[in-house]
C-alpha cells in the first residue's frame, strides 16, 4: 500500500482541475492505497522570502500551513498536483506552494512518482505543455523523483467551473491512472 498525496490548487469550488483530482483519488482508493487530498483554497500559504534558513534548519521560518504540507509531502510515496492553467502557467497558489517546499530539498524524502493533473480552456498545444514547466523544474530538484504522468484536460469549453464533467474520456483516463499508482 502506498501513501498518496493529492494537492488541488484551484481556488474555485467544484473546479475542473478539482474534478480531475477527485477522479484520480477515486482510482487510488479503488486500488487500495492510502490517499489524502489537500485543497489549497483551505490553506494559508505565504510567499517564500528567500532567506534560505530552511537549507540549514530543515524548516521554514514562516508560520503557516506549509509545515504540515511539507511533512505530508516528505512522507508520501506519490505526489499529485492538480492545477488549472492560467495564462499558460500553473496557478499562483501552486507556484507559491512549490517555492515553499524548499525545506525538503536537503533532506531524505519518500516520494518517487509525481503526477500532474491540469485543465486548460485552450486546445492542446505546445503552450499548454510548457505551462507545466514549474512542476517539471520542481521535480528536477529532487533526484529520486520523476514525473510518472501528465494528464491535461483541454477544451475551449471548460472555462465554466464544471465543464470537465462533460469530458468523460479525460475523467476516465485520470481514474484509470489513479488505479495504476
Automatic annotation (TrEMBL):
Short name of one Pfam family: FMN_red
UniProt keywords, alphabetically: Flavoprotein, FMN
Domain of life, source organism: Bacteria
Domain (NADPH-dependent FMN reductase-like): residue spans on this chain: 3-117
Name of the protein described by the UniProt record: Multimeric flavodoxin WrbA
Amino acid at each position: 500500500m502506498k501513501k498518496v498525496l493529492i494537492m488541488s490548487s484551484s481556488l474555485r469550488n467544484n473546479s475542473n482541475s478539482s474534478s480531475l483530482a477527485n477522479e484520480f483519488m477515486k482510482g487510488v482508493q479503488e486500488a487500495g492505497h492510502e490517499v489524502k487530498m489537500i485543497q489549497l483554497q483551505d490553506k494559508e500559504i505565504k510567499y517564500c522570502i528567500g532567506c534560505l534558513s530552511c537549507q540549514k534548519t530543515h524548516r521554514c521560518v514562516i508560520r503557516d500551513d506549509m509545515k504540515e504540507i511539507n511533512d505530508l509531502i516528505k512522507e508520501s510515496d506519490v505526489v499529485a498536483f492538480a492545477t488549472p492553467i492560467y495564462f499558460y502557467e500553473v496557478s499562483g497558489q501552486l507556484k507559491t506552494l512549490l517555492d515553499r517546499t524548499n525545506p525538503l530539498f536537503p533532506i531524505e524524502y519518500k516520494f518517487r512518482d509525481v503526477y500532474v493533473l491540469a485543465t486548460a480552456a485552450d486546445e492542446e498545444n505546445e503552450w499548454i505543455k510548457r505551462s507545466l514547466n514549474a512542476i517539471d523544474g520542481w521535480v528536477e530538484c529532487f533526484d529520486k523523483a520523476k514525473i510518472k504522468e501528465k494528464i491535461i484536460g483541454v477544451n475551449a469549453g471548460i472555462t465554466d467551473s464544471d465543464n470537465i464533467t462533460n469530458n468523460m474520456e479525460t475523467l476516465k483516463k485520470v481514474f484509470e491512472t489513479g488505479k495504476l499508482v
